[in-house]
From TrEMBL:
Protein name per Swiss-Prot or TrEMBL: Nitric oxide reductase activation protein
Coiled coil ranges: none
Organism: Peptoniphilus harei
PANTHER family from the UniProt entry: NORD PROTEIN
TM ranges: none
Signal peptide: none
SUPFAM superfamilies assigned to the protein according to its UniProt record, in alphabetical order: vWA-like
Length: 571
């Protein structure tokens, strides 16, 4: 399965076009080479105009995939050699790409576009293409086309489509007049900047264009935790690339309400070792442009998640009551109110005689109220893209847990985490002292990006360890695969700060942070939702204190079992 985040990073690195999501473009990359090629091409061609062309004339056709592949082959022919000269690291991408295509030579039946690609590779290598006669002429025309102009490229595609696909009933039935009108409008609305979108009809405030952007009151929980760290006041991101990344963060995740220097203080304190140069970003769920694509996407996710919960409201309400009962009868068993004899309080008439006869002055009853104020539960949700397919269930299950805990007045806090370039995104859905109504913010859960589990757990340890003399719990929901690749290996690219976080090194780092968290007296438990192949990772990280669940709808039950087991240990 292709890693979309890695391919996006490659595209952005080659194009420096951070406000464009290549996976919302008609021509999507299938591997690192295609991501690099499209990124390089985006420096010369207007990808917004190209996408309009494909949407208008290609994407509704049954044979659209063939036409997309031919379109990418033309780009390869135009830009590949120059890209490799400028970015030598992309040569390895191309070799892997070509070898994957050449594997098809052993197949009895090869589809037309694959045969065309094989022919192009052979021609590049100075070999005879060995393709069907009908493809020889097309391949020759593609090989000779080198224009870098947006409209000449579209003219050529249209010419190829009409000439070689004219017998196909799926051919777009556009007229010369229609296409010329399209070009005229596109040219008149284009700006001098190649990568700036032109205004489309029927869209207000560029809302539609926002879907091409990067993917992907101040926080009260900081208190005084990081006040003593020395830092240069208000350190705005000063590198051009960093500025672009930060702007993309704001567009993708919304604004921060803490000062940048506060977030930088946290980075200085926590981002050490393999996490050095990883920054923190704390969005509050508010967007500068409330009608932007990502603002609407977050509203859509909230609506989807809430709708999923409401569709099973009776079942979910029962789950909340059952979980609350489990917690009350286990974790809170020693917190039940006691009635004690006292020298003050409510007088007990039947005990009055003891004052005169026995000189006993404890003839009153006093209720010794034991509440749950000394219990703190933190829930940390992996919000990487791997959780996307189950986001509604995860949001519902987390809401059930939060409702059960807060109904018993247990201090409950819920966060999610994911990574974007060299930033760890921390979202807070509710804090310890928030009213129960805040639990609904959990339905804003929107997975994206990668995950640097060790740093997220280290961050939580620094927060939770402030609650001294309390029983503290940290429940981490994870896919069991800590992975955050920053350096994508392109020679000549301006390197994004930070080290790659993957494979055994990432697993061992996460394991270390879990151990250090437990040594602080924080009861840490992992709930694993990933593939069975990654289950060994979760055992290395959490030891025996984890649960592997194939049915995420059991999340709240697993949490109940964990809390009950802990209560039994301390009896």
């Amino acid at each position: 399965m292709k890693d979309e985040n890695r391919l996006k990073n490659i595209f952005w690195t080659l194009s420096d076009f951070y406000d464009f999501d290549i996976f919302n473009f008609s021509l999507k990359p299938e591997d690192s080479y295609e991501a690099a090629l499209l990124g390089y091409a985006a420096r010369y061609l207007d990808f917004y105009v190209l996408d309009d062309f494909f949407k208008k004339y290609v994407n509704s056709l049954n044979n659209k995939k063939d036409l997309w592949e031919i379109s990418k082959l033309v780009l390869k022919n135009i830009f590949s050699k120059e890209m490799i000269l400028e970015r030598p690291g992309t040569l390895d991408f191309k070799k892997d790409h070509d070898e994957e295509i050449l594997k098809n030579l052993n197949r009895r039946k090869i589809i037309m576009t694959t045969e065309l690609k094989i022919g192009h590779i052979r021609k590049e290598r100075g070999q005879y293409p060995k393709v069907q006669k009908v493809l020889v002429e097309m391949l020759g025309e593609i090989y000779n086309f080198k224009e870098r102009d947006t409209f000449k490229y579209l003219d050529f595609l249209r010419y190829i489509f009409k000439k070689y696909f004219h017998v196909n009933k799926d051919l777009p039935h556009d007229t010369e007049e229609s296409y010329e009108e399209f070009k005229k409008e596109a040219k008149s609305n284009s700006t001098s900047k190649k990568n700036s979108p032109y205004q489309r009809k029927n869209f207000k405030d560029n809302t539609f264009l926002e879907r091409y952007n990067i993917e992907s009151a101040e926080f009260t929980f900081f208190n005084d935790d990081f006040r003593d760290i020395n830092v240069i006041e208000d350190a705005p991101v000063n590198k051009f690339g960093d500025k672009n990344i930060y702007k993309a963060l704001v567009k993708r995740y919304g604004i921060e309400k803490i000062k940048r220097h506060t977030a930088d203080r946290i980075s200085q304190e926590i981002s050490t070792g393999i996490h050095e140069e990883i920054k923190f970003f704390f969005p509050v769920g508010e967007f500068e442009n409330k009608s932007s694509y990502y603002a609407q996407e977050e509203l859509g996710n909230y609506s989807d998640n809430l709708h999923f919960y409401e569709n099973n409201k009776l079942q979910n309400s029962r789950a909340i009551r059952e979980l609350a009962g489990v917690i009350k009868n286990s974790l809170l068993k020693e917190s039940e109110d006691e009635i004690l004899k006292s020298t003050s309080g409510r007088i007990v008439p039947s005990e009055i005689w003891k004052t005169r006869e026995l000189n006993e002055d404890r003839i009153f009853e006093k209720i010794n109220r034991k509440d749950s104020n000394e219990i703190f539960v933190d829930i940390l949700l992996d919000s990487s893209a791997s959780q996307n397919e189950r986001k509604e269930i995860l949001a519902t299950e987390t809401y059930i847990i939060a409702e059960a805990l807060t109904s018993l007045n247990i201090k409950t806090r819920v966060f999610s985490y994911n990574n974007f370039y060299n930033y760890l995104i921390i979202k807070k859905y509710r804090d310890y002292n928030d009213p129960r109504i805040k639990n609904k913010d959990i339905f804003k859960y929107s997975p994206s990006g990668s995950n640097r589990d060790g740093l997220a757990i280290k961050f939580m340890r620094h927060l939770v360890s402030k609650n001294r003399d309390a029983r503290r719990f940290l429940i981490v929901l994870t896919d069991g695969l800590p992975f955050d690749e920053i350096d994508i290996g392109i020679v000549g690219a301006s390197k994004t700060p930070g080290e790659n976080y993957k494979d055994e090194e990432a697993v061992m780092d996460t394991s270390k942070e879990v151990l250090l968290t437990r040594l602080k007296g924080i009861n840490t438990f992992g709930v694993f939702t990933g593939e069975e192949a990654e289950s060994m990772n979760i055992k290395k990280i959490y030891g025996n204190d984890y649960a592997y669940i194939t049915d995420i709808a059991r999340f709240h039950k697993v949490v109940g079992i964990f809390l009950k087991t802990y209560a039994n240990k301390i009896e």
